């Protein structure tokens, strides 16, 4: 029933397969452009795929993504052995077990901190044993404790660039 045209192709029925092929190619091109856009961070240039690592001493100043003013790149950490302290509570005996990691600026600072470990442990234990259950309970209390311990570290380990004190474990009984 198909009638032949002058070029010898069928006018009805079979049609051309060119349209579905073009639709498939077009879909692939749109997907490729979208993927490129997302990998570049949503705006022209300078995204995830094109960030350059800071060179030399610029790493600490530049930040994680290599952008000035961003957060500094993380430094090495020193893990202190677990602390178990008797808390100052008049009514009941309460104990706290805490673990800390101290972030420093360089590997040299980490080595210097290791020399002060007995002094640091002594200072941490003295500070923590003067705390009550309520003074260690909650995120605000933990933040206050970390800030106080950072201040103590400045006097207990002079010359060490301490960037942060992190509580990695806390159990109060």
Overview of this structure, please?
This protein folds into 2 domains: 18-51; 77-172, 2-Layer Sandwich (Tetrahydropterin Synthase, Chain A). It is built from 5 helices and 4 strands. The protein has helices spanning 18-39, 58-62, 107-115, 117-129, 139-156, and strands at residues 77-79, 83-86, 95-104, 162-172. The longest helix has 22 residues, at 18-39. The chain is elongated, with a radius of gyration of 32 Å.
Can you identify the CATH class of the largest domain?
Alpha Beta
Radius of gyration: 32 Å
Number of strands: 4
Query: How would you sum up the global shape?
Result: elongated
What's the helical proportion of residues? 25-40%
Structural classification? alpha+beta
Q: Low-confidence stretches at least 5 residues in length (pLDDT < 50)?
A: 43-66
Please state the average pLDDT score: 79
Task: Assign the CATH architecture of the largest domain.
Answer: 2-Layer Sandwich
Number of domains: 2
* Topology as a string of helices (H) and strands (E): HHEEEHHHE
Number of contiguous helices: 5
